Amino acid sequence: MPHILIVDDQEFVREALHNLIKLDQPAWQLSEASDGEKALEICQKAEPEVVVLDIVMDGMNGIETAYRMRQVAPDSKIVFISSNYTTRDACGMARLLDGSFVPKSEAGKVLMPTIKRLLTA
To answer: The whole model's pTM is what?
Structure first.
């Protein structure tokens, strides 16, 4: 059963993503982190198959978190999410870190297919 980590500094976004994933896949294990440091702690203890990672966060941003995550959980797949970046800019950053990008505004339609694609890759 896949382990998915949701990382976002906004509680309502974490809750919405959690509910979206659980509605589609109730058996999946979900963890949440409100910042990059907490995300790295979770990754060190239990390497999740997929990390849904906000790019813009207070403290350590998603790009730095992803870079450091590659060192502690190299097999975790990353799905960057953001409402502050254009798809073109974010996709470029995601490719540099071997990840995917989903705009927050499209998460309801695109997040689950993206996660499922990464789990079978």
So the answer is: 0.91
- 36-45 vs 62-72: helix crossing angle, rounded to 10: 20
Residue 84 structure tokens: 């502050």
DSSP code per residue over 66-116: HHHHHHH-TT-EEEEEESSS-HHHHHHHHHHTTEEEEEGGGHHHHHHHHHH
Alpha carbon distance 110, 79 (integer Å): 11
Q: What is the pLDDT of residue 20?
A: 97
Token pair, residue 9, equals: 């500094």
Q: In whole angstroms, give the CA distance from residue 22 to residue 20.
A: 6
Counting Cα atoms < 13 Å in the Cβ hemisphere of 98 gives 11
Kindly give, in sequence order, each residue whose CB lies less than 8 Å from that of residue 43, ignoring residues fewer than 6 positions away: 5, 51, 69, 72, 73, 76
Q: Identify the residue whose tokens are 């992803």.
A: 66
Which residues make beta-bridge pairs with 54?
Answer: 81
pLDDT > 70? residue 92: no
